[in-house]
Amino acid sequence: MIELNKKEFKENIIEYLKLFYRKNIDEATNQQLFHAIAYSLKNTIIEQWMATHKTYEEKDVKTVYYLSMEFLMGRALGNNIINLKAEKVVREVLDELGIDLEDIEEEETDPALGNGGLGRLAACFLDSLSTLGYPAYGCGIRYKYGMFKQKIIDGYQVEVPDYWLEEGYPFEIKRPEYAKEVKFGGYVRMIRDEQGRDRFIQENYQSVKAVPYDIPIVGYGNNIVNTLRIWDAEAINTFNLESFDKGDYQKAVEQENLARIICEVLYPNDNHYAGKELRLKQQYFFVSASIQRAVSKYMEKHNNIKNLPEKVCFQLNDTHPTVAAAELMRILLDEYCLSWEEAWEITNKTCAYTNHTIMSEALEKWPIDLFSRLLPRIYQIVEEINRRFVMDIKKRYPGNESKIEKMAILYQGQVRMANLAIVASFSVNGVARLHTEILKNQELKDFYEMYPERFNNKTNGITQRRFLLHGNPLLADWVTKKIGDQWIVNLPHIDKLTAFSEDPISLREFMDIKYHNKKRLAKYIKEHNQIDIDTNSIFDIQVKRLHEYKRQLLNILHVMYLYNQLKKNPNMEFYPRTFIFGAKASAGYERAKSIIKLINSVGAVINEDTSIGNKIKVVFIENYRVSNGELLFAAADVSEQISTASKEASGTGNMKFMLNGAITIGTMDGANVEIVEEVGLENAFIFGLSSDEVINYEKNGGYNPQDIYHNDLGIKEVLDQLINGFYTPEKPNLFKNIYDSLLYSNGYEKADPYFILKDFRTYEAAQKRVAEAYLDKERWAKSALLNTAKCGKFSSDRTIEEYVQDIWHLEKIEPK
Ligand code: Z57
């Protein structure tokens, strides 16, 4: 076991401050201290990292390559200290130097190379892979600008570029020796080689140099460090100033430009496909580099490419990296001269695909002209995959044109990436039981019929190391005091807390901790929002990306409804409630941005209205991200998981709240179904249409929200306030778009496509049950505690063990 050495650590901090900044400890800024501390920690990490890779080489291990456009890592310093089990030593040293660790952690900007759930899942998976001792690489893009920073100005979202590398990132290492060339455009020429074989050569292309940067992923206390490898683009040096003709010069400039823009910025869309050419360039860029490198690394140690599947697995995180299958085919066909059948067998045994959504607007369908222009050789290969697949369909379903219509990869001028991913993979998985069932029985029914053995479920999970041990130290210490520290690496152990669920003293302690965390959040809100919130009120929190299907609108309409009630009846029984929202809207998603403005407008009115005696507050957390998420989960009483049933593939925020002892108010959607199964219906507040009901309505053309509007005065009053200037007197029309979306269909959408009015009254009733339940403090405490106790299933450690068992078949490396 390589451990952090106290004396060296302290000396290194002092040394680095001099070396990097010409400063003594007492002169250094907190930012400089952060860097010096991070580098000093990296010393130990590097030792473990090298040892890990030595072991991997000696054992000639099988490795999973997790290909993902997004890794939403969050801050590394605190997490690395925890996973190195170095907290005690670090705190001692920093104490001696008069430095506060929390202040230093605040200096790190969140690496936010992801949008939301999908990117954060990738980050949790890396943490679990290292902690469990499985050989893995995360492969992604080193975006220069990550997820934008959100400012709220006059209630509106304003996007500010996130230049996360501004101060340098201490944990990364550039590895120029592993650079790979990636080619775009041009055309394919067939030649006959000396052995008389047909060879395909890409000509007149543009290319960039993909240069990897490695970031260590430290396992918890086990001496194992895996790698997140993110690729940057650099210009290929063809700029020869002495002799260039016009064509070369032009091309050199174009190549430089391509290199400059390709990794410039993360597309800020979550669950939405925009069809931008640059996005496809990003996809092929990091995929080609990653696959080329994985194949070269394999061939350094093995002589037979045909055994690649024994040592390598590519997991495709959604369809975004699906060109991986065609890229691997290209390498096997064009560089290793395998036959199509041989290449296809290898590819099909090496690629596995995870589906994360059934939302049709998220499905990637590239126009063939764009795809074939940018990736001419890859397109040829996709054409051949499609040709053979269509033959298979015809053989299996003679004369059934509709099967081809639904399943072909190339159809009506588009490349359907999900179809390609399924056909090219040996495994297709959904991310929660309900989601996988919907895939099998509805969305991907035809594929399931053809390849039933490929389909499997992997219910998502989260890492308890970040979201409890790091994010909620008070609760973490309490849990450890009660049941020992096994839960840190074996979350199901946390069920031992059940024994305390009837013990009044334990319940008191549990709620005291919650109270402290609420105070911590209240302080943050005071500083950032200048709002005083009542720490005895119910903290009711909805934090996630802003999307109509997630129904932040249902939540805020209900707040408006409660406010109307209170205004009419100021003396009514009402337990004070703080409604907290946090959400980024994709920069081009107008409806989502209107909903943010609505939340802020409602907040501005209600928070100032003294006539309701501060019983309701509405807070919008600016720039919701991993770091402030940790504060929010720890402080929540109520977890809002209210998506339209069938739409949220899994959700993972739901699990983070549960872990921290918040009670879910939610629909039977995604992983909520399994959460309720674990904790019991009596320890959650479930409401709304079932996924079958929603799917049925959708099949039959929706429902008529007008009936509800005209028959329910409470709802009508709220909706009318969207168009009568109640919240924005100077701009009474501001929310007309929202009003219209709830009541009228247009060319694209049905009226109220997310069933907000349909579910309103059952939601309102569930919220009433919340309010009543909170009055019984002990009962509430028991429920909250049981949520923490019953969340063992939702560790990403469990999820990863299932991936390893069913898909990756990796060997566990025991700690040294
Ligand atoms: C994204 O964050 C998710 C799905 C997508 O297709 C894209 Br693009 C982005 C989310 C789902 O919406 C969540 O329900 C799920 O928990 C998460 O992916 C991780 O699987």
Automatic annotation (TrEMBL):
Task: Name one molecular function that GO assigns to this entry.
Answer: pyridoxal phosphate binding
* The keyword Transmembrane appears for this protein: no
| GO CC, any one term | cytoplasm
Q: Which InterPro entries match?
A: Glycg_phsphrylas (IPR011833), Glyco_trans_35 (IPR000811), Pyridoxal_P_attach_site (IPR035090)
Pfam families per the UniProt record, alphabetical: Phosphorylase
**Cofactor(s) this protein cannot do without:** pyridoxal 5'-phosphate
Matches recorded under NCBIfam families: P_ylase
Family note: Belongs to the glycogen phosphorylase family.
Q: Give the protein's function.
A: Phosphorylase is an important allosteric enzyme in carbohydrate metabolism. Enzymes from different sources differ in their regulatory mechanisms and in their natural substrates. However, all known phosphorylases share catalytic and structural properties. Allosteric enzyme that catalyzes the rate-limiting step in glycogen catabolism, the phosphorolytic cleavage of glycogen to produce glucose-1-phosphate, and plays a central role in maintaining cellular and organismal glucose homeostasis.
Name of the protein? Alpha-1,4 glucan phosphorylase
| Organism, scientific name | Anaerocolumna aminovalerica
